[in-house]
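Q: Give me the 3D complex with magnesium ion.
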Amino acid sequence: MIEVRQLKKQFGTQPILDGVDLRIESGESAVIIGRSGGGKSVLLKHLIGLLQPDAGEVLVDGENITHMNERQLLAVREKFGMVFQGAALFDSMTVEENVAFPLIRKKKYSAAEIGKRVAEALDVVDLPGTEKKKPAELSGGMRKRVGLARAIIYEPRFLLYDEPTTGLDPIVSDSIDQLIIRVRDHFKVTSVVVTHDMRSARRVGNKVFLLHAKKIYASGAPEEIFTSTDAVVRQFIDGVADAKETIL
Amino acid sequence: MNFLARTWVGEWLTGLGRIAVMSRDAVMSLLTLKVTWKDLVYQIYFIGIKSQSVVLVTGAFTGMVLTAQTYFQFHKVKMDTATLAVVGVSMCSELGPVLTALMVAGRVGAAIAAEIGTMRVTEQIDALRTLATHPVDYLVVPRLLAATIALPLLTIESIMLGIGSGYVVGVYLLGIDPTYLWFNMLKYTGNIDLEIGLVKSFVYGGIIALVGCYKGMSCGMGAEGVGRATTEAVVYSSIAILITNFFLTLVLQHIALMLL
Ligand SMILES: Nc1ncnc2c1ncn2[C@@H]1O[C@H](COP(=O)(O)OP(=O)(O)OP(=O)(O)O)[C@@H](O)[C@H]1O
Ligand SMILES: [Mg+2]
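A: Here is the predicted complex, encoded as structure tokens.
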């Protein structure tokens, strides 16, 4: 379970999040939608302790991670996997070494086992045969999928996806959605997906949060949100760009 | 005072504090021996082997010019054969460690800051953290260890080369009597001078690695941030080396006097 209470964060003088509350139950898959630049990535980074809030708290399985130091956080982060918006692959390593990294760091797997699991993970994200390539030789979408393979290989209990399907073609996007659902149901993973893709939000989410005006503006089951009559929610879902006043 | 705290003084003190915290983390992590041997060996290779040409040229030419200049002055008072003794002492305790450290700061300190800075702006450091890896364990410790191992070795090399090339210049170019030249050098250059040099180079290795890592880790956003971090790493570590050198000389000489 992940719980966020009255989270506030500002960079310099610019407030990004101002009193965010949300609660994600174990096994649930939550989708966070919101405007570009609205602070979704910032919120996601708070869930795993990459950023420290100015005020408010974040609880993981009931444990307050807000005031933990980096070493204490490492133990908490073992439960987490994160797929970064920009993939964040280690560019000095090959694809294979990137994906194997979390297993090698744990020091309890044999080389053969690591090799087998890397091959499996790359197969799952539909990238067989790229083992020896460097991240710079891959396309943006391929990099993102390597990032996904790196996050799922150690079977974490929480998976945070920052726009996993942005920039991918519809077929691969669809297979990533399927993968998110499969991982969720198979390993009982709690997933948090930040996305702009309404189709994918509808498909993978069983709870949707709309981040708007520095707060969670609306939350609920996908059917509730997608049938909502609220102007702000409708505008976001239908993707209408007029009526500036309702946005602001 | 408030005014001062808000300007560079405050920033500078904050920076010092952060480096101190990072050093503590690095030392704690060293004590638990979590270092990966493969990374350590690679870093020693990168810092030690790849700095060879720079260190060799620096050591040789410093020794040569020092010999020539000392000879020109000493010749006036007929102390020709004491030339290499001066070269020996100053190469061992001052010039060897300081010049080697300055050259390595320019090459390695910059590379460390650029590499870690790029990792930071491309979120690779955040990725490390999500993969339950402390950036200090994984990035700082191998570099710190490698630099403190490699720098004394590089310094010995540069001292040997400096004295050797000084001897060659003294004997073959300036025509000083070889036997007395060498004898006086051995007589006046004590083990203690070499030991002081090695202690210094160990400290400078630490400074180069820590400043480089710190500047990389606290790098600003974008390509500009990386550029700045690189420059600052070189400038700050060079300044720190020069300032530390003065105090280390005082302290180490004092200790040497007490021991003898
Ligand atoms: N490290 C940082 N320092 C300063 N400002 C930041 C930092 N990270 C994010 N911001 C600011 O926070 C705001 C929200 O950024 P964030 O990346 O969370 O947006 P987002 O909702 O993920 O957008 P997108 O959908 O485009 O990814 C932006 O205005 C950005 O400029
Ligand atoms: Mg984002």
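A quick observation: The pocket of adenosine-5'-triphosphate (ligand 1) is lined by residues A 11, 16, 34, 36-42, 85 (CB under 6 Å).
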